[in-house]
Design the sequence.
C-alpha cells in the first residue's frame, strides 16, 4: 500500500484505488474527512524536525477516529539508542493508540519493543536497504506487526519493499508529483501483487 502525505489527488479512480492510504503528518494538509473509513497512519515528522505541538495537535484531532494503523512515536533520525529513549518517554502519552516504533541505524531484530504494534523502517539508505533492516522486517512480520517503509521514491525500491514483505510505503516523489507518478506507482503495486503473492 502506498500512503500519501496529502489528499490532493482529484482523480476519483486514484482516490478510490485499493492500494492507496494516507500518512498524516504535522506538515501535511490532510483533512480528517478525507481519511475517515480509509487506511491511514500518523507520522511524527521528525525527519524534517519534530514539532511537538503540531504533532500532538494532529494526534488530538484524530482521537475520535481511532482507525489508524499506527502512530510513529517520535524518534531521532539515524540513532537507535536515542530513539529507544524517545519511545520510552512517549509511549505512555500515546498508549491509547497503535504505537509505531521507528527503526533507525543501530537497531537489530532483537530490539523491537514489546509495546510496538508497528515498525516504521527509517534510518539511512544503507540501513534501510541492508541485511539488518531486512531481518527486522521479517521478525516484525513473524510477530504480527505492520511494517511501513519511508522514503520509497522509485519503482525499484517499491519492488524491494514489496519483496521484503513490507505492508506500506511512502515517498515524497509520489506525493509532490502525484499527477504524473502516483497512479503509475499504485498500478505497479497491483502488478506486483498479481505476480508475487504476499508472504504470510
Sequence:
Amino acid at each position: 500500500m502506498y500512503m500519501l502525505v496529502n489528499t490532493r489527488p482529484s482523480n476519483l479512480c486514484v482516490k478510490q484505488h485499493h492500494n492507496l492510504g494516507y500518512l498524516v503528518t504535522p506538515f501535511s494538509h490532510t483533512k480528517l474527512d478525507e481519511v475517515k473509513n480509509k487506511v491511514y497512519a500518523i507520522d511524527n515528522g521528525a525527519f524534517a524536525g519534530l514539532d511537538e505541538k503540531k504533532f500532538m495537535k494532529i494526534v488530538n484531532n484524530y482521537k475520535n477516529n481511532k482507525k489508524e494503523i499506527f502512530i510513529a512515536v517520535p524518534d531521532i533520525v539515524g540513532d537507535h539508542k536515542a530513539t529507544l529513549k524517545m519511545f520510552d518517554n512517549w509511549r505512555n502519552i500515546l498508549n491509547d493508540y497503535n504505537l509505531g516504533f521507528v527503526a533507525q541505524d543501530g537497531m537489530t531484530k532483537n530490539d523491537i519493543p514489546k509495546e510496538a504494534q508497528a515498525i516504521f523502517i527509517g534510518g539511512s539508505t544503507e540501513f534501510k536497504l541492508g541485511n539488518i533492516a531486512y531481518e527486522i522486517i521479517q521478525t516484525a512480520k513473524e510477530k504480527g506487526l505492520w511494517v511501513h517503509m519511508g522514503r520509497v521514491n522509485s519503482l525499484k525500491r517499491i519492488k524491494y519493499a514489496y519483496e521484503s514483505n513490507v505492508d506500506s510505503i511512502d515517498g515524497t516523489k509520489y506525493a509532490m508529483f502525484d499527477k504524473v507518478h502516483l497512479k503509475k506507482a499504485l498500478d505497479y503495486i497491483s502488478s506486483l501483487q498479481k505476480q508475487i503473492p504476499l508472504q504470510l
